[in-house]
Design brief:
The chain is mostly helical. It has a domain at 21-65. It is built from three helices and no strands. The protein has helices at residues 3-15, 23-37, 43-65. Helix 2 packs antiparallel against helix 3. The chain is globular and about 35 Å long. The mean pLDDT is 87.
Length: 73
């Protein structure tokens, strides 16, 4: 499978309305999985997956914040 195929699958899920709307649930599940896999990952994998988790967290924060500032500090 290619990265382009995976991105296409992400897009298809979104366009078909199958993407989860509860970003906090997805972020929590991802954090749980990542914490259990942490010791098996190398440095580059950790950096990449932390970026994915950060993007999920930011999306959840933006949804909660609504029209308020996007700056968590």
């Amino acid at each position: 499978m290619t990265p382009e195929k995976v991105i296409s699958m992400f897009e298809r899920q979104y366009l078909e309305g199958k993407a989860p709307l509860d970003v906090e649930y997805v972020c929590g599940g991802f954090a749980e999985w990542l914490s259990s896999a942490w010791e098996y990952l190398d440095g580059e994998e950790k950096v990449l997956l932390m970026s994915v988790g950060s993007a999920l967290w930011r999306e959840g924060y933006n949804r909660r914040a609504g029209s308020a500032t996007k700056d968590p500090w």
